[in-house]
Design the sequence.
């Protein structure tokens, strides 16, 4: 919510039915946006969401957590039981985001990522710089020979992890081996929310900080 809308301050002002209709007409991603538009129209038709407040992003995302129509249909819930899903209000939007995270497999009390220092002998084939698909996952135990001060991590060695280097393809002159992070299943769950290596790092960083406040 913090990253998507600055904690609900910037929800977007575009008429999202109009946005989705325009993007459906555009050839580049016509199929995707046409489906999203039809889902949204059905949600309105079935009176699940209120059509008079459908203002959001240029790409059709809506509410505190910027859900696309398909996400609304699949995961949003009417938590306060007033027969309408209100994703600009706290109760329904928080419950819907929690339901989404739970449904896609977020595991409570499991790590999301750790920043690590990689040794110079780390084979480049293990490094992920794209969020499209996280490749070369191994048990943490397998990677320990490439990680400085591995003992200090104090983690379950049998858990599957991957290594990411988020700066490599987007920052001119970025080093290859640093910064580097080992990432866990939870990290990939956040990528399915928004496929960006840095987005997921930011979400998990916020989560760590909030966790210490609760
Ligand atoms: Ca409601």
Sequence:
């Amino acid at each position: 919510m913090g990253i998507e809308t600055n904690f609900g301050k910037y929800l977007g002002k575009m008429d999202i039915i109009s946005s989705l209709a325009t993007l459906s007409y555009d050839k580049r991603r016509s199929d995707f946006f046409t489906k999203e538009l039809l889902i949204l129209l059905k949600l309105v038709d079935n009176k699940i969401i209120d059509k008079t407040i459908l203002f959001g992003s240029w790409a059709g995302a809506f509410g505190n957590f910027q859900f696309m129509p398909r996400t609304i249909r699949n995961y949003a819930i009417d938590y306060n039981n007033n027969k309408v899903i209100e994703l600009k209000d706290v109760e329904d939007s928080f419950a819907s985001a929690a339901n989404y995270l739970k449904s896609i497999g977020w595991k409570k009390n499991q790590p999301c990522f750790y920043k690590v220092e990689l040794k110079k002998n780390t084979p480049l084939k293990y490094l992920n710089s794209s969020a499209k698909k996280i490749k070369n996952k191994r048990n943490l135990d397998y990677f320990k020979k490439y990680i400085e001060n591995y003992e200090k991590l104090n983690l379950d060695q049998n858990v599957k992890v991957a290594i990411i280097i988020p700066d490599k393809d987007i920052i001119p002159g970025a080093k290859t081996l640093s910064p580097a992070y080992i990432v866990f299943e939870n990290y990939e769950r956040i990528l399915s929310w928004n496929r960006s290596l840095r987005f997921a790092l930011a979400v998990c960083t916020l989560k760590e900080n909030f966790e210490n406040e609760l």
